[in-house]
């Protein structure tokens, strides 16, 4: 999704008086050396959303609760 697409989605939500729920990736690329999630990719997304007057009401970090966890997540 491009920034323009996201802006359009936020404008649509605003026009419908809807709340925005989104999801953030939880893959290895956004985890630190200990395996903990970091906001490395989410922070710029949230900052852009706020900069154009948008609001994210909620965000999920894992959108498939029934999915099997990768072995590397187990401690």
Descriptive overview:
- The structure is a single chain.
- This protein is of the alpha+beta class.
- The protein has one domain (3-73).
- It has helices spanning 3-15, 42-51, and strands spanning 21-23, 58-60.
- The protein has a two-stranded parallel sheet with strand order 1-2.
- The radius of gyration is 15 Å and the shape is elongated.
Kindly report the average pLDDT value: 87
Strand content: 5-15%
- Tally of contiguous helical segments: 2
- Elements, N to C (H/E): HEHE
Quote the distance from N terminus to C terminus: 34 Å
- Report the structural category: alpha+beta
Number of distinct beta strands: 2
Give the uncertain stretches in residue-range form: none
The biggest beta sheet is recorded as: 2 strands, parallel
Give the count of structural domains: 1
Rounded Rg? 15 Å
Biggest sheet: strands side by side, in what order?
1-2
Helix content: 25-40%
Shape: elongated
């Amino acid at each position: 999704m491009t920034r323009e697409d996201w802006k359009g989605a936020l404008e649509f939500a605003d026009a419908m008086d809807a709340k925005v729920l989104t999801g953030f990736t939880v893959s290895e690329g956004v985890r630190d050396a200990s395996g903990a999630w970091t906001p490395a990719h989410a922070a710029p997304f949230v900052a852009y959303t706020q900069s154009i007057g948008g609001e994210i009401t909620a965000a999920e970090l894992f959108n498939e609760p029934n999915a099997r966890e990768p072995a590397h997540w187990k401690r």
